Amino acid sequence: MFTFSLLLAAFATRCAFAAPNLVKRLTDTQVLQFALNLEYLESTFYSRGLSQFNETDFENAGFDSSVRERFVQISEHEAIHVKLLQSVLGSDAPEPCNYTFPVTDPVSFVTISFALESAGESAYLGALSVLQNKTTVTTAGTILAVEARQASYVSSSILNSTAWNGPFDTPLSTSAVFSLASQFIDACPSTNPSLIVTPLPILSLSPTNVTVNDTVSVSVSTKQDFSPSNITIVDDTFIAPTTDGSGPFYLAFFHGSQVSFAPLNADNSTTIPDGLAGVVYTALVSSNATAPSPDTTLSGLYVLNIPVPPSADNSSN
Ligand SMILES: *[C@@H]1O[C@H](CO)[C@@H](O)[C@H](O)[C@H]1NC(C)=O
Ligand SMILES: *[C@@H]1O[C@H](CO)[C@@H](O)[C@H](O)[C@H]1NC(C)=O
Ligand SMILES: *[C@@H]1O[C@H](CO)[C@@H](O)[C@H](O)[C@H]1NC(C)=O
Ligand SMILES: *[C@@H]1O[C@H](CO)[C@@H](O)[C@H](O)[C@H]1NC(C)=O
Ligand SMILES: *[C@@H]1O[C@H](CO)[C@@H](O)[C@H](O)[C@H]1NC(C)=O
Ligand SMILES: *[C@@H]1O[C@H](CO)[C@@H](O)[C@H](O)[C@H]1NC(C)=O
Ligand SMILES: *[C@@H]1O[C@H](CO)[C@@H](O)[C@H](O)[C@H]1NC(C)=O
Ligand SMILES: *[C@@H]1O[C@H](CO)[C@@H](O)[C@H](O)[C@H]1NC(C)=O
Ligand SMILES: *[C@@H]1O[C@H](CO)[C@@H](O)[C@H](O)[C@H]1NC(C)=O
């Protein structure tokens, strides 16, 4: 496995995902507007899920009786994050969008909760180096830590998995996070300030519950079309190449401060590299010669959750 360190500044400034988008530096207000959009999404996810499933439903799905009450607490945290960001942004605050979540039972609710908390943490982590105002950095840090604790609780206490990924977590840019969040967004009010993100095609892996050395089948949907609403303005510095079958293609795996690659076979299958642990974000790219850049990134992100048994070497992720 060949790994690039994204700490190399020369690559980091060009990286589409792992580094914040420095091609077009966002203002603090734009970063906070993006954060509020995420908090609206999370808050709606929890309040809707909790209205859908009562304690008995959670117990019948095999969860401890305390689990629903814990989600009530998490839901309260998200609602308070919404209020805080609304008050910081004042008249610059966007309104909530309309959302659809593929929640069919408490198990899918818990699984999506874990993905949302992990992506939320990575979003705040990616925002830190973009924010200029140190007071705002501290505010973002206090929320970041809570998102990380919530992800750990869901992963360890509920899913009986690991509480951490490894020594490092993964910062993501707004476009990277949006490629995950946008799958739940139907439309946003046309009066909302525009989000400065790049819509990307949705990446899917099959099967979904994979670990290292597993072979997976990779597919990419058409780019999401948000044209009637004001969800996004395409960052016009970005031109996505098309997957015309010419190849070569790779999956890039973003883990901690590193990115690793796996080549795509002719049948669109690939093998998950060894050495990955916990939450790993992956995207389809057209080159393994440099860290992924806007020129080589072909899809949005997909979240993997690689099992980490207690006996495993967890000194890297
Ligand atoms: C990039 O992928 C090619 C196969 O497409 C492989 O031969 C080469 O070793 C890889 N390079 C790196 C740096 O991983
Ligand atoms: C919980 O919801 C289920 C349907 O999802 C319903 O059958 C049951 O009566 C509810 N239990 C309580 C205690 O409200
Ligand atoms: C930083 O943000 C705080 C809180 O919103 C605000 O009170 C302060 O004026 C800002 N500082 C600068 C230099 O803009
Ligand atoms: C987690 O472990 C507990 C206790 O052994 C068990 O009741 C529960 O079903 C497990 N949950 C999952 C999601 O495996
Ligand atoms: C959101 O859904 C409501 C209720 O269905 C609808 O009235 C409204 O127009 C939708 N908003 C947008 C931005 O599409
Ligand atoms: C929002 O979308 C509408 C209709 O597509 C457009 O007329 C309007 O200019 C957009 N507003 C902003 C702020 O982009
Ligand atoms: C994935 O799920 C399938 C079917 O539920 C199961 O047989 C398989 O062991 C799981 N694989 C992993 C890596 O957890
Ligand atoms: C993955 O495969 C490699 C090569 O076959 C092997 O050395 C390694 O132990 C495997 N890793 C795991 C976690 O099974
Ligand atoms: C691989 O994926 C590409 C792009 O989605 C598609 O055009 C092609 O037909 C796929 N190839 C196979 C063998 O499924």
UniProtKB/TrEMBL annotation:
Keyword set includes Signal: yes
Pfam families (UniProt xref): Ferritin_2
Signal peptide: 1-18
Chain ranges passing through the membrane: none
Entry keyword set: Signal
InterPro entries noted in UniProt: Ferritin-like_SF, Rds1
Designated name of the protein: Uncharacterized protein
Organism for this UniProt entry: Hermanssonia centrifuga
